[in-house]
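Per reviewer request, we include the raw input and output of the structure prediction for the construct analysed in the revised manuscript.
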Amino acid sequence: MPAINHAKVVMAETYKRLKKSNSDYQTLFNNAPISLVEIDWSDVKEFIDKLRFSGVDDFDHHFETHIEDITHCISLIKIITVNDAALDLFKANDIEGFKRGVGKMFTEDSFGPFKNQLVAFANGELSYEDKNEGIDLEGNHQAAKITAIVLETNNKPWSRVLYSVEDITWKKEFQRFKEENERKYEQLLQTADEGIGISDLSSRFTYVNKKFTEITGYSSDEMIGMSIFKLFDEDKEDEIKEHIKRRFSGISERYEIEGVRKDGTKGWVLLSASPIYDEAGQITGSLGMVTEITGRKMAEQALKEKEEKLLESEQLYRMLSENSENVIAIVNKKLDITFLNDRGSKRLGKSVAEIIGMNACELYDKKTFSKVKRNFEKAFRSGREVVYTIKIDVKEVKRWVEVRIVPIENNDGKITSCIATSYDITDLREEKFFSESLNEINDLLNSSLNFKKIFKNVLPRATEILGTESSAFFERGNNAWILRYHRQGDSSKLPVGQSFTDKELPIASIAAKTKLAFSVEDASQGEQFRREAMEKMGIRSALMLPLTRSDKVIGVVCFCNHTKTQQFTERQLDFSNKFAASLSLSFENARLYKKEREENKLSLALNEINSAIHLHNDLDKVLDEIIEKVGNAFGCDVCALNMRTGDHWVVKNIFGMPREIVGSSFSDDEARTAVLTHETKKTVVVNDALNDDRINVDVANKYGIRSCITAPIFMGDSMIGVIDCLNRSATYTFSKTQIDYLNKIAASISFALN
C-alpha cells in the first residue's frame, strides 16, 4: 500500500532527525495514524552470532530443520513500546497488556514469516516486508502486512527494530466473498433446468453443465473437447454448419432440432444459441441453452395423427372436441361458424345456439377482425395449415391465444371448411416475457458497479415491465426510510433525501419484516393507518420489494400507481422477488467496489497530506492544503477547521464555502457537535441534520447542512479545535472507512499543530 511504504520512509528519516529528542520522537510515534511497534532484537542478534560462530552459514536451512531455535528467538525478542494505533489493532488495553499477550499472537501460520525475517536479518538485510497470519488478544483471526526496519543506534546492534503493521483482513474477506459468489454461480449453472454448453471457434465444447450431460448421455469429461457434430446424424451436418455460420456472424437464434444421444437413441431439443464476445468485441465462441422437448414432439406428432384421423369422420371429431380444453370451431368458406364446442361457448360467454351462423370475424374488434379474415382466406386459398396469434378479451381480461386453422376437404378433394383450434398461450407468453425481462435486468445490473447508474438503468425498465406509473428507492438508516431515488409520477414531488418514519411508510415496514415482495392493490381499502399514509403520499396502489444484505434489510424499492389500482399477478410477484435478489447482489458488489475505491482514494490522500506536513513550514498554507485535500478525498461539500477561542468556536480554514467565513465565530449552542466532541473527546457523526438534536436547526437551515461529521484536534492532551466535513445536498450515511480516515487526518493535523 502507498501509505505504508511512505510511512516506512518517513519514520526512518524522522527517527534520524529526532533521535536526539526523545520527547519529540515519542509524540510522533504515539500519534502516528499507522500501527507501530518498537522491538529489541539484540538478544536475537547475539544468538544468531553464536550460530554463525558455530559454523552455521545457511540460516534458511538451519531454521527449517531446527524449529526449536525459531521458538527460542521468539522468546528473546523484547517489546520496547507500541503506539495507540497498534494497541487498537491488536485489542490491547495498554503496553503492558500487549507485552504479556504477544506470545498468544503467534500461530502456526506466523512461524513461516518470522523464520523468513530471521534469515533476512541474519543475511545482513536491514529491512523486511511480508504478510502474516495471526490472532489479536481477543482471539480474532487477523491477516496483516508487516514492514520491519533496523534503526541506527549507539547501543547494541538490533536493539531498536521498528515495525509498521497494516490490517489486510478485509482483503482476505473480499477474496473469500468473491470465491463464494463464483461457487454460487457455478452451482446455479449446474442446477439449471436447461442444458448449458459453450463451444469455441472450432465448434468443440469447452464447458457443459450437469443437465447437458443428462440430455446427451455423455459425461462432462467426454464432452470437453468433443465436436458438436458428434451429437447429430451426418444428414444434419450442412444444417449445423449453416447455424454455426450465422452464430459467428453475430446472429442469435432459437430452433428445434433432432440429435443423437451416446447410446444411439434420438431425441428432440429446443436450442437457444448466441455468440460469445471477448472484451474487444470479438466473437470467441457460442453459448447454447438446450431444453429437452422429445416428449412434446411426440405429443405433437400424436396430436397431428389424431387430427388426421378425426378428419375422416366429422361427427367423431365433434364428439371428441367437446372434451377438449381448447376452443374448437368449424368455419365454412363464408367464414360462418357451423360448429363450436362447449369450451368455446364458455370462453365467449354465449350459448352455442347464439354463435352458430355468426360470421367468425364478428367476434373481434376491427383491428383483430382484419387479421382473422386474412388468415382464414389464406388457409382456404393455399389448402395448408395456418397458425397465428391474437390478443382477445375474455371476461374483461386480456388473453393471448394461438389459432391453428386446418383446411377440410370433401370426398371430391375440394376444401369446404376449416377447423380452427384456439390455444390459450397467455401463461406461456407471460412466463417467457418475465424470464427474458429478468435476463435483461441482470444484463443491466452487470453493466455497472455505480449506485446511481444502477438506479438510472434498472428502475425505469423495471417500472415498464411491471406496468406501474413510478418507482422509488428508500434506504433504511437511523430507524427511518430515506428517499434516495425516484422516477416520474407523483413521487417526483418528494425531495431526494427526505426521511419517513415506519408510520409514514407502513408498507415498507411490512415488506422489511417479511423480506418478500408486498403489494397493495387498492390503497383506499384496508387498515386505516395504512390508507391515510398512502393517501398522503398520493399512492393508489403499490408493490414494495425489500433489498437485503446478509439477511438484513438495507432498503426497499417501491413501484407505485397514483391514478389507478393494480392487481399484481403471481408471475409479477415472482419476478419482483427475483429482481430484488439480483438488485441486492448488485448493490453488495457495488458497495464492495466503492469501499475498495474509497479506501484506496483515502489512503492516497492521507499519504499526500502527511507529505504536505513534512514539506511545508508555513502552518496556514499546510492547513489550507490539508482542508482542501480532505474535502476532495472525502467527497463532502464543505470541510472546515474550527479552533476553540475563549468560549466560542472560530473558523480558521475552510473549503467549499467563501473565504469570508474564515474568522466567523459560533457559540456552543450553535456548534453543538463541536461541544459534544469536546466533552467526549470522540468523533461525532450526524447522518440527518434536520432530525437530530445534536445539530442546531437554525444553523443547519442557514448554511444548508444536511449531514456532518466532527473529529477532535489536540494539542498534547488538550483538545483545541475540531475538523468538520459537511454535506449540503442531501442526508448521507458516513462509512466506517470515512470515520477512520477523518480520525487519522485529525491526528495528522494535531501533529502539524504540535
